[in-house]
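Reminder: ligand-aware prediction takes two inputs, not one.
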Amino acid sequence: MDKAVKPIDCIIFGGGVAGLFALDKCLSSGIRAILLESKSLGTGQTIDSQGIIHGGLKYAITGHGAKAASAIKDMPAIWRSCLAGESKPNLHKVVMRSDFCHVWRTDSIRSKLGWIAAKLALRTKPIVLDEDELPIALQGIEGSVARIDEQVIEPRSLLEVLGRQLDDHILQTVEGGVEISQLDDGWLVQLLNPKTGEPLDLFAKKIVLTAGSGNSHLRSMFGLEPDKTQVRPLQMVMARGNLPVLNGHCIDGAKTRVTITTSKDYANRSVWQIGGQLAEDGIDVLPEKLIKHAVQEIHEVLPNIDLQDIEFTTYMTTRAEPYARGNRPSDISIIEEKNVLTCWPIKLAFAPRLAEEIVARISASPNEEQNSVVDFASWPSPNVALPPWETDQPWSTLETAASS
Ligand SMILES: Cc1cc2nc3c(=O)[nH]c(=O)nc-3n(C[C@H](O)[C@H](O)[C@H](O)COP(=O)(O)OP(=O)(O)OC[C@H]3O[C@@H](n4cnc5c(N)ncnc54)[C@H](O)[C@@H]3O)c2cc1C
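Here is what comes back for the chain with flavin-adenine dinucleotide:
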């Protein structure tokens, strides 16, 4: 091999939650790895997500997906330990939205059975709350409310903390600045430094694709079929203003009617991200119409919330997954072809388990090869993506929405 070509064990494409956890696990397992990011860390799903460390409650209660509930049930304990700084990666600096979620139901007849099913299926059991234990947002509602120990993190903070810890191994790339060729026992990846224009040629035995909706295009670049992927879009609603803190789901029959999480914006206003069935049904609906529907839903499921001075907007986003005929996959997925691993966590909560499975498929170089360590210090690092409520978009109050 040409001496200018630097050997490395693994190159990861895509710095969302999946790529960052995979990079961390590779490095702590003695695997020489770098991560390439073409935009900002977390662009796409991670920054748009609601940050709930699911343990399967939604799936268990709605009775749809015992397999999904079982696959994810160990995740809250793994994350709790990292978020407390007791396991690697150390995430104790990550900003938390909440230490638990609330779940409330509008279908009183089925609710008891739902809680029992959830208690049987889950490691983190729902605790049904008395009236005097309810948070302000849920006071006075009809139907039962439970608390579940599913933590809610601030995704931007997670990206910042992991990005900082792994900075020396994360390289910014630019469109047209990456070329790929297949060699006998691995891949030649040729990069251009976006700051200096200098070339860098790397040889990697394994490639990991954790680029979310970018996986499809990357698979074509590696000569693999792009159509093993699917996307399921969502139109999420956001509300900002004087709103109480609420993190949780309203379940109605077999559906998650709304999922609401609370963050703060640059002006210290509360921001609600509102997803669930509303966002699934909203993909072809005009934003003004979806906002009206969201307001109606909030009046019905949270009758004590005053929305008078609250501003609303929506954002389009998507879930990138392995092909499953448009249905929700129930577990992580890794497709391995020609030393390329195409990976999907399908949930942010699954990132630690996906990283374990990725590393189990990669071997570290023998010691004598370790001498050729490459120093990437002069290479620019990517920024972290902006959350959807900090990007430029029109917000409207109930009054302006009604007149449109
Ligand atoms: C609205 C919404 C809410 C959600 N809420 C939750 C939740 O509460 N809890 C939960 O567990 N899950 C949730 N999810 C799912 C979760 O967000 C995703 O499963 C997870 O974030 C996927 O992470 P990822 O790293 O695979 O992909 P992404 O976060 O999409 O990251 C992909 C990265 O790859 C980069 N990239 C793309 N193309 C290239 C390329 N050619 N070269 C280099 N880099 C590239 C992108 O810029 C990006 O940084 C939610 C998803 C959505 C859409």
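The chain has a mean pLDDT of 90. The CA atoms of residues 252 and 387 lie 29 Å apart. We will return to this case in the review session.
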